[in-house]
Amino acid sequence: MIPKILTGRTSSTGLIRYLFGPGRANEHTDPHLVASWNGFAPDPGRNPQHTTARLARQLDQPVKVLGDRAPKDKVWHCPVRADPGDRYLSDAEWAEVARRIVHATGIAPNGDPEACRWVAVRHAPDHIHIAATLVRQDGKRPTRDFDRKNAQAEARRIEIDYGLRRLNPGDGGSAAKRPTSKEHFKARRTGQAQTSRELLRARVRQAAAATRSETEFFTALEGMGIKVQIRYAPSGDALGYKVALPGDSNKAGELVYFSGSTLAPDLSLPRIRERQTATDTTPGRRAVRRTDPWHQATASIDRIPAALASDEAPAAQAHLAALGETLDLLPAVTDRGALRSELRQAARGFERATRSRIRADHQHVRALRNAAKELLHTPSGDGSGLAMLLNAAVLAVIAAARWHASQQHAQQEAAARQTLHHLQAAYQQAATQPLTELRRHTPRRTLSAATPTTYARPPPTTPSASSPTPPGTHLPLCSPTPSKPATIPPNSSNTRPGSGRWTTPASPPRSSPGASTASDNAPHPAPEPKPHAPAALAQPPLPHSPSARRLSRSSPCPQSRTGADAEAPTARWLRAYTPGTTTQRAWASSVTSASTSPV
To answer: Is the full-model pTM beyond 0.70?
Structure first.
């Protein structure tokens, strides 16, 4: 349930005539009173003898008594609308809702006979309009401090009492201004899916995220086809700006302009300057790219969960703002229609999660903001860069939802959770092509994960000084423990004390240096030949290429490489990199199955 409070400086005659009329698009059906200040006010909707002029005169009577001493704002108007999915309330229930709203806002406290005069008109099944005058019947003005905040708080309690859809409470002024009903009707007449305010907000956010200075910002807006007017100070410095869409005019034929602060609190010129000062504007450093911006942006997003876990709220808020700017730029880096649509919805949903009452310290996110601006000039190639960035963004958005929950930012938390669904859908589409390329380049021969591999060792021979190891003979990497210990000469190069695989008999003690015994001169016994491994388990030796030797040095004994260790190197790296969310686990499992299955 959403109450919205408006005030006017004219009499209530025009408002009452509109409430009991057919509406601008004939949307008013059966207009009638459901409640009033005294319970028996004239009802023009149900009694033909009563007129709207008579009802308006009774409402304005306390205002006319004051004459010139009447306040400038004379009329108080509060439409209260239920969610389209809620059940229709009865007239008695809407009457109780109206009484609770006027009591919470100070218009007519319960038990106060001298309160302001008011009426509640219902002309549609899902909402009512409360009209009141801002002069009490005793000639005083009502005490309505924080009436908008109190109306929202009372609406949250009404939702609980009547079992309606519960909305999230706001944090006091950080949300963007919603389009008015007139703007919605205008967009419907012109065939636009969104209002001019919403279109301008999305384009201005994208221009602010892609530029590094005010000059670039205003140039980018003009390049998008947006009309820009800049307000300058006498010194020549820009104080503010306002924008308009071409063709969006009023009845007089003039363009309808919106200032940056009316589009969103963070789109005012001072707030944009704060973010632009946290970027690198040096031409020399901008021309030299030490790293791939896709890799740099992904690495910076990977650090966002740790930054949100810290106790520095300004730094955490800055990371969320930079993440929102990155999401604003992603629709421009792909030409795939379905993927672009998901990215736009993700950026639009996460916009609410980037703003709160906490002032951001943007100096903490210079690396992410600089990398994000370079994404527009660096194609992602096969899409692997975009897929990895979205992979990191999913975890960052999950951490953002938890951080907002800890800060009791209900609307921002809901926006982050809504963004998560669109990001996951975008990730599924962006990762299709990289996974296809990965399966195509999977090695044909891989180690089986089900059958352990045993390498056969040839029978050892007795080395001697006169018969060195022939050139090209490679010693085995490792071998299974023999069933019977083999006798190896003590001075043999194959002796590996403490290895557990070879058994070397201890040498007899010598009496003195240089002395000899009969056993020393005796010939050494020939080693027993070791039986070969079964033919079913025997495998050809690994190739002795540089990559294979590096793999053998960094990997455990091949006979113990079973299960997850037997995966292809690409699959093991991807599994180690991929976090443990549902989407990423699906990616890792698909790559693992592709690498271990026969081609």
So the answer is: no
